[in-house]
Amino acid sequence: xxxxxxxxxxxxxxxxxxxxxxxxxxxxxxxxxxxxxxxxxxxxxxxxxxxxxxxxxxxxxxxxxxxxxxxxxxxxxxxxxxxxxxxxxxxxxxxxxxxxxxxxxxxxxxxxxxxxxxxxxxxxxxxxxxxxxxxxxxxxxxxxxxxxxxxxxxxxxxxxxxxxxxxxxxxxxxxxxxxxxxxxxxxxxxxxxxxxxxxxxxxxxxxxxxxxxxxxxxxxxxxxxxxxxxxxxxxxxxxxxxxxxxxxxxxxxxxxxxxxxxxxxxxxxxxxxxxxxxxxxxxxxxxxxxxxxxxxxxxxxxxxxxxxxxxxxxxxxxxxxxxxxxxxxxxxxxxxxxxxxxxxxxxxxxxxxxxxxxxxxxxxxxxxxxxxxxxxxxxxxxxxxxxxxxxxxxxxxxxxxxxxxxxxxxxxxxxxxxxxxxxxxxxxxxxxxxxx
Length: 436
Ligand code: HAM
Known about the structure:
5-stranded mixed sheet; about 40% helix; binds histidyl-adenosine monophosphate; BirA Bifunctional Protein, domain 2; alpha+beta; 3 domains; Rossmann fold
């Protein structure tokens, strides 16, 4: 039986056109992260499953992880997210490193999910994280990085919004105001995380099963109604949580100074499925009605290093997936066209004897940082221009019997249609015309 030509379910082959799109997405990510002084890092594809058990949360471990026992009886997993690897790496070096530590990476990750629009089994994810920044400035900076990244792709606040919450607020509501037990709080987090995806009846059924008294239930539903930063402030103050309210308020004041408040919206249902978050949590959402989904998720975590017996070092970061980003750019017509490759020049010869001179010219131009495509055999004139179009070049050279006899080429600028006869003994003049 013949083998299947298609890639494993939920993974993608990147043919040159798709790879060009991916290269563009990554180039903008790298440029933006580096413009904030973030340093690139990477880790291994495999980690011990224990690492994820310690921090990531039930859904990732029970339903999504790709795991196996290796030949040495170690239980390992393909990385489903980068944050545990990052924490492990930071735990090795943070004592000797000056703070804050600003790192970024674009790893491929695998999660066993049902493939659908915006969800695959292997995706690439930009991770930007800051460790050890003073006060709430790291949180503001990380949001700024995300905003400037979207702006670098040409997006504005009409295209996306950052839905934001603070786990300190959710904790205060559940534990202090509603007086929920630890177990009930855990269940409330899971319910809140699903609140927007289920019907009103299903929500009421789940809340009913938590075993809260009616007063606590009323508080819970009024918490779910909060939709502005002012609403939260009033709600917290009314429920004697002035301290939490003023901490959150000062964070919002910083976001105003960083000019990012217009992108932010309070959303009580954002608590994030991963267990390690302790402070602000956020998701960047596409505003387009055909693509209402999370493009990016992140938040602050205070205790990620504890599992390595290290002192707490607070951090904050986000992950942004390549699949959701591409859908976002496409649905808003923000993705440039990558149908054809981009090269500088196509060198052709119409007589077999032109090969040697062509190779020599190509070597010279490549040494001068040009992208040069050569015909490997004589090319008929009528095929030259269609080939040039497919190769995405700006210039073409031709060498027929006349030029060959005189050691010359014809150089044609495809945009201006200008054509020059040039001497192959004067390579510098050829280069000058191309670079002009
Ligand atoms: P996450 O919310 O699990 O967070 O993933 C972040 C983003 O990765 C999502 O918003 C989505 O764009 C993309 N993504 C996740 N799973 C898939 C999938 N199966 N297919 C396509 N795209 C996907 C984290 O992973 C955190 N570790 C992020 C983080 C970094 N928090 C702090 N630092």
